[in-house]
């Protein structure tokens, strides 16, 4: 049974870089037709898609974050990571990693991590 | 403001059916049959309940069904239960820009 787990610092200072890792337990990124993605949720509010990555490294980013965000694949295809630069308080929220169904285009998140809360504050 | 428009809340009595709408444009919902719906219990991660407009993942209750007409997708929850109270639902669609957008979310109240 594949399970996803986010990890990283819970507190990041303004203007610094937020870095999170998603570990794929019980499977690898290069098995099956899936992309892998990040989604965030502002406190008490809705969801925002951040980006998706394929095991080959192909990426799609939310245009509103594209200048600050990068996704990467870890060794052995068991981890993928998120880097968000120049963070502000507006980047505070819960960050989820997820597996993305791909049928020509990556489009639905069928497996989610439990989420990790990140606060941006000095 | 979210790209896809959902009602903030929907309510119904136990045993009834409720429908949550998700309105977009021809840039996404109206063109692509790649609309998905997510259930979120308070304090938990979202879970996929519908994908490709009307398909249910394995293990998801048959109480959930999805459809689409024009630029509006809909999620219907039948046989409403007390346990459904407080859950939130989000729609998501693939877009012509090859990105994904979410609705603002709908909270369910069981009367």
Give the percentage of residues in beta strands of chain A: over 45%
Q: Could you give a short account of the major beta sheet of chain A? A: 7 strands, mixed
Helix-residue proportion of chain B? under 10%
**Structural class by secondary-structure content of chain A:** mainly beta
Q: Give me the Rg of chain B, rounded.
A: 13 Å
Give a short account of the largest sheet of chain B: 6 strands, mixed
If you average the pLDDT of chain B, what whole number results? 96
Order of helices and strands of chain A: EEEEEEEEEEE
Approximate helicity band of chain A: under 10%
Shape of chain A: globular
**Whole-Å distance between the termini of chain B?**
28 Å
Radius of gyration of chain A: 14 Å
Number of helices of chain B: 0
Task: Give the number of DSSP strands of chain B.
Answer: 9
What's the end-to-end separation of chain A, in Å? 39 Å
Protein model, in words:
In chain A, the strands form two sheets. In chain A, strands 2, 4, 5, 6, 9, 10 and 11 form a seven-stranded mixed sheet that branches. Chain A has a four-stranded antiparallel sheet with strand order 1-3-8-7, with no helix packed on it. In chain A, 0% of the residues lie in helices and 54% in strands. With 122 residues, chain A is an all-beta fold. In chain A, a hairpin with a 5-residue loop joins strand 5 and strand 6. Chain A has strands at 3-7, 11-12, 18-25, 34-41, 47-53, 59-61, 69-73, 79-84, 93-102, 106-112, 116-120. Chain A is built from no helices and eleven strands. Chain B has 111 residues and is an all-beta fold. Chain B is 0% helix and 42% strand. Chain B has no helices and nine strands. Chain B has strands at 9-12, 18-23, 35-40, 47-50, 64-69, 72-77, 88-94, 100-102, 106-110. In chain B, the strands form two sheets. In chain B, strands 1, 3, 4, 7, 8 and 9 form a six-stranded mixed sheet that branches. In chain B, strands 2-6-5 form a three-stranded antiparallel sheet, with no helix packed on it. The N and C termini of chain B lie far apart (28 Å). The model of chain B has no long low-confidence stretch (mean pLDDT 96). Classes of the chains: A mainly beta (122), B mainly beta (111). At the A-B interface, strand 5 and strand 10 of A face strand 7 and strand 8 of B.
